């Protein structure tokens, strides 16, 4: 009984604190993710206000946060869009993968963290935050821009790559042998293909099962299905997150929109808890030593993302200013990168990896949207001078 | 004129075209039903310099405003093609005899031989109105027929 009181007090204080930080971020016009991470650092061991009893509860909440993040991400896309994006943008997508996974992997190898950490760091620098980028596009009125489909297709490609990457990473982190690892990856690939196929051909049957005019029933069915598939995926060592993502993709149309709208508040709560939890796990005293390295890595991967955007937009016949905007829009890193680092930390990868990833995401989640905000006046000025 | 359609994954669809004068405009249809009217920057052809969010009602209103004069235009074009055929727009004066009465009461076709093809009310076009369509003040009645018969219709609505 006493414990419950302390749990509520602590958890309530954390969530309320996040709400106040979120309001602050909204006012300044930045993503709240870096602030959530900072809050986690403050509450963690060695921080200013270490939490006592609620850490276990927050850990479970964080797992739910990852599932909900991936589920709602999957709900945003339908299988048709994924297939068309894959066909039209495979080349730009591969350039994106090569240019942006390399810096993280190379740094990890140079630091002597070993191949598993290198694969994890490759993921940390590769994935653009689709959440932050989507917000930047809509805040700055870039949705109607002609380079925006290029940016969105790259994000779709990255998310699909994640469906293959996460199982590979999970297998490597679990220290599976080459054969066992290959089996896991094969299962993951088969699962992704089957889900895409089922969604394309028989999507209406799944929808008929899940659909309900009652929002309560709909939420329970969608969340239940996602958790069930996530658990099954985790059991097969395929990564729970991918399972939830696939459930999201299999659902489409009006049903997916309704579910997305209903789950958004739930996701916001648990995703915020997830970012705090990642901060909790990171030793704040290691952040400062990692900051210089993180800043260097951030600078390099900003340039590689910029190059990716410029390349992809040029292929799509976009003029010079639009190419730069496409590159800038791809800079923010956020939720996925922390999810990847979180997996690596939980599996006991190099102890400094968490601090480096946290500092890296802190920089790019904050600076990415800011760069996008600053670039347009600059481009207009340049255009006016050359005209 | 070619309308280009682009899929915006996670958002919806975008349609765009370039006008004869070289301006590019488009419409972003969000899955949520929201529509954005987008006007592109002439100096930076990929940038939306104006984005106007429209809800269902506003989008409908815009469609009608753009569409209504087109119907009258088409009618004018039609009567140029068929010699002797005239289209006339007659305004129903508020408080006049047919304000608030069904259109059929005027017995336009029987008395003059001309046809009422549309009624325009507050920018909305009611094409081929039925005889029980109730007219109100400031309605514009579009009549098609011969020179004399259309003038006769104007007289009917003016005096009764």
TrEMBL record, chain A:
Primary location:
membrane
Q: Where in the cell is it found?
A: Membrane
Annotated GO biological process? proton transmembrane transport
Q: Give a Gene Ontology cellular component term annotated to this protein.
A: membrane
Name one matching Pfam family: Na_H_Exchanger
Q: Does the keyword Zinc-finger apply?
A: no
Molecular function (GO) terms for this protein are: antiporter activity
Which key words tag this protein in UniProt? Membrane, Transmembrane, Transmembrane helix, Transport
* Domain Cation/H+ exchanger transmembrane per the UniProt entry, residue ranges: 21-367
Q: Which InterPro entries match?
A: Cation/H_exchanger_TM (IPR006153), Na+/solute_symporter_sf (IPR038770)
Q: How does it sit in the membrane?
A: Multi-pass membrane protein
Q: Which residues cross the membrane?
A: 6-26, 33-51, 57-77, 97-128, 148-166, 178-202, 222-249, 287-312, 324-347, 353-375
Q: PANTHER family attached here?
A: CONSERVED INTEGRAL MEMBRANE TRANSPORT PROTEIN-RELATED, SODIUM/HYDROGEN EXCHANGER FAMILY/TRKA DOMAIN PROTEIN
Q: Member of which family?
A: Belongs to the monovalent cation:proton antiporter 2 (CPA2) transporter (TC 2.A.37) family.
The name under which this protein is listed is Cation:proton antiporter
Q: Which organism is it from?
A: Microbispora cellulosiformans
Automatic annotation (TrEMBL), chain B:
Q: Taking every annotated instance into account, which residue ranges of this chain make up the domain RCK C-terminal?
A: 75-159
Q: Which domain of life is it from?
A: Bacteria
Cross-referenced Pfam families, in alphabetical order?
KhtT_N, TrkA_C
Which Gene3D superfamilies does the record match to this protein? Answer: Regulator of K+ conductance, C-terminal domain (3.30.70.1450)
SUPFAM superfamilies per the record? TrkA C-terminal domain-like
Protein name, as recorded: RCK C-terminal domain-containing protein
């Amino acid at each position: 009984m006493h414990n419950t009181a302390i749990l509520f007090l602590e958890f309530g204080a954390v969530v309320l604190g996040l709400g106040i930080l979120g309001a602050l971020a909204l006012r300044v016009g930045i993503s709240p993710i870096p602030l959530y991470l900072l809050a986690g650092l403050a509450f963690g061991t060695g921080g200013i206000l270490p939490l006592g009893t609620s850490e276990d509860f927050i850990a479970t909440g964080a797992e739910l946060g990852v599932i909900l993040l991936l589920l709602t991400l999957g709900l945003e896309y339908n299988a048709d869009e994924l297939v068309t994006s894959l066909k039209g943008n495979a080349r730009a997508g591969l350039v994106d993968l090569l240019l942006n996974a390399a810096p993280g992997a190379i740094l990890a190898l140079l630091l002597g963290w070993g191949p598993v950490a290198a694969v994890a760091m490759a993921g940390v620098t590769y994935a653009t935050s689709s959440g932050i980028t989507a917000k930047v596009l809509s805040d700055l009125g870039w949705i109607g821009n002609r380079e925006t489909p290029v940016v969105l297709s790259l994000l779709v490609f990255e998310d699909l790559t994640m469906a293959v990457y996460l199982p590979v990473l999970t297998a490597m982190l679990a220290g599976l042998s080459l054969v066992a690892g290959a089996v896991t990856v094969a299962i993951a690939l088969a699962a992704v293909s089957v889900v895409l196929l089922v969604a394309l051909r028989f999507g209406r049957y799944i929808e008929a099962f899940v659909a309900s005019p009652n929002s309560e029933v709909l939420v329970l069915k969608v969340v239940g299905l996602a958790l069930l598939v996530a658990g099954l995926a985790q059991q097969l060592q395929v990564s729970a997150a991918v399972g939830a993502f696939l459930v999201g993709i299999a659902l489409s149309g009006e049903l997916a929109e309704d579910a997305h709208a209903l789950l958004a508040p739930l996701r916001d709560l648990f995703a915020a808890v997830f970012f705090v939890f990642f901060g909790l796990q990171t030793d704040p005293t290691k952040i400062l030593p990692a900051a210089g390295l993180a800043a260097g890595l951030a600078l390099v991967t900003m340039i590689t993302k910029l190059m990716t955007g410029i390349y992809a937009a040029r292929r799509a016949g976009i003029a010079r200013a639009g190419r730069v905007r496409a590159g800038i829009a791809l800079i923010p890193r956020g939720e996925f990168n922390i999810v990847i680092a979180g997996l690596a930390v939980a599996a006991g990868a190099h102890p400094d990896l968490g601090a480096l990833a946290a500092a890296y995401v802190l920089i790019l989640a904050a600076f990415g949207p800011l760069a996008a905000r600053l670039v347009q006046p600059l481009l207009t000025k340049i255009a006016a001078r050359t005209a | 004129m070619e309308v280009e359609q682009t899929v915006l994954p996670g958002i919806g669809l975008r349609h765009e075209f370039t006008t004869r004068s070289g301006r590019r405009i488009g419409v972003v249809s969000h899955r949520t039903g929201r529509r954005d009217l987008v006007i592109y920057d002439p100096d930076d052809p990929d940038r939306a310099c104006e984005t106007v969010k429209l809800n269902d009602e506003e989008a409908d209103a815009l469609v009608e405003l753009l569409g209504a004069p087109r119907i009258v235009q088409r009618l004018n074009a039609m009567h140029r093609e068929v010699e002797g055929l005239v289209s006339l727009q007659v305004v129903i004066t508020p408080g006049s005899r047919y304000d608030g009465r069904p259109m059929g009461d005027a017995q336009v076709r029987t008395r003059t031989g001309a046809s009422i093809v549309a009624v325009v009310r507050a920018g909305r076009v009611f094409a081929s109105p039925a005889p029980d369509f109730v007219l109100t003040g400031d309605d514009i009645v579009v009549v098609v027929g011969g020179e004399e018969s259309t003038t006769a219709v104007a007289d009917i609505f003016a005096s009764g």
